[in-house]
């Protein structure tokens, strides 16, 4: 993944290319070249591209990596206060806690709206178990609540449902 410093470097090169295309467009109008309107379009495109690269150089695109977290899939997100992630059935309680903390960090956004007065994002973790062939049952293993007010929330409330781990299939050797 590119860093902000790399995006700033790309912005500089794109800015130089934009100036070159603008100069060519001016020359095309002075000498009445047939491609003068195409050069105006190309210059406009380069302006948009340079602006986008500049914006990417200001905001980091990195995801939080928490040691011990496992891969998860976002299953449901209402864009406000609720989300559900799916994990592997072979997850341990400590891995689940790390995975919930990583999901809480990655799913945080300034654009989420707290509805009904609760200003918390609740993320529930579930997995699928198969008690018999052809039957899938969702099993909720835990949840985390974090504030929507600030990016860093030191008081996230993590709940791990220990009794649900007994229902998980045992790994075969």
Automatic annotation (TrEMBL):
Membrane-spanning parts: 12-31, 43-61
Pfam families given in the database record: DUF2518
InterPro entries: Uncharacterised_Ycf51 (IPR019664)
Superkingdom: Bacteria
Keywords recorded for this protein, A-Z: Membrane, Transmembrane, Transmembrane helix
Protein name: Ycf51 family protein
